[in-house]
Amino acid sequence: MRWHRIMLTMSGALALAACHAREAEVTPPRAVIAVTVHRDSRPVLATLPGEVNARYATPLSFRIAGKLIVRNVHLGDTVKAGDVIARLDPDDAQRSLASAQAQLMAAQHRLTFAEQQLDRDRAQAQEQLISTAQLEQTQDAYVAAVAQRDQVVEQFALLKNQVQYTTLTAEHAGVVTSEDADTGQNLAPGQAVYHVAWSGEVDILCDVPESLLKALAVGSAASISLPAVTGRRYAAHVRELSPAADPGSRTYRAKLTLDAPGPEVHLGMTANVTFADTAGEAQADDPITLPATALFHEGNAPAVWVVRPRDQALELRRVQVGRYDDRTISVSQGLTDGERVVLQGVHTVSAGETVRAVAPLHPEDFAS
């Protein structure tokens, strides 16, 4: 009985100690991904969709008609200048060249004979053995033989070129963007066999609304982001701006050249073209650009979570969004330069919750 009372006393003491230990435990603040925001130094005029294109793209075709018998490259292949990419059946061209070669030999033989006859007649004319009229006929025959020889020489050169034209070579390095003819097809002169986009300078094509025309000109700077290449922006400038609007869309086609495209930039990629206002420096009413992941809603109103500096607690702040882009939002009112805003997990936190703000592990993933 005594031992039973001792055991009960010890059990109660242990339970009370465990209760006090649990009360002493302090839950650490939750870590949230947040960054200090700043106003855009150059307010964005507009962000427009675009497409990556080669500066030059040309169709490749044969100069003569013929039957296509060989295709050495296909869609997406890379070619170098001088590569043979297709061939026509050369039989007819080679036969014509052989005929022209025979005609050239005959014309050269006639010319040799006419030259020898002219030498004999000149010698006989000096001895007054033939008349002047006969010498003139011999001279005329010699001139005609020279002219005929020259004509056959040119015809031979033309047919020799025709044989070379049965082989299609790439004039510039590039990428095959389309196949326009099949093996066995009879082609007309100039009919496209391939389209090749040249390697080298890369353009971004976008359509500009008329409301932006006054702010843009050839040479205007732009910032390019590619959805397929996250965390990087490319500098570009307007190379060409169409003087007339498209009759269907009423927009103006702009061609921008990427200043330093990398190997990760491929033809046909979609792009976001951002034009900034370069008229002045940041002002107090300039917008703040945030990743779209920071956006929350209070009712129907857009809002963001702000980390209060005095107690590290979360405050839900209503904001006014001036522009929505694919990956970013532009906050025109509601935030102050230097405040910390939660970028991720906005649906898992609550107002008044004490948090520990940490920077993104990969800041480029949240680059605006």
TrEMBL record:
What cellular component terms from Gene Ontology apply here? efflux pump complex
InterPro entries, A to Z: Beta-barrel_RND_2, MdtA-like_C, RND_pump_MFP
Asked if the keyword Coiled coil belongs to this entry, the reply reads yes
Supply the alphabetized keyword list: Coiled coil, Signal
Instruction: Give the source's domain of life in one word.
Output: Bacteria
- Family matches, as SUPFAM superfamilies: HlyD-like secretion proteins
Q: Which residues form a coiled coil?
A: 97-124
Point out the signal peptide segment.
Answer: 1-23
Where the record annotates domain CusB-like beta-barrel, the positions are 206-277
Which GO terms fall under molecular function for this chain's record?
Answer: efflux transmembrane transporter activity
Q: Does the keyword Aminoacyl-tRNA synthetase apply?
A: no
The residue ranges of the Multidrug resistance protein MdtA-like C-terminal permuted SH3 domain are 288-346
**TM spans, by residue?**
none
Family matches, as PROSITE patterns: PROKAR_LIPOPROTEIN
Q: Name one Pfam family in it.
A: Beta-barrel_RND_2
Protein family (similarity comment): Belongs to the membrane fusion protein (MFP) (TC 8.A.1) family.
Q: Which NCBIfam families match?
A: RND_mfp (TIGR01730)
Query: How is this protein named in the record?
Result: Efflux transporter periplasmic adaptor subunit
Origin organism is Paraburkholderia monticola
Q: What is the lineage of its organism?
A: Bacteria, Pseudomonadati, Pseudomonadota, Betaproteobacteria, Burkholderiales
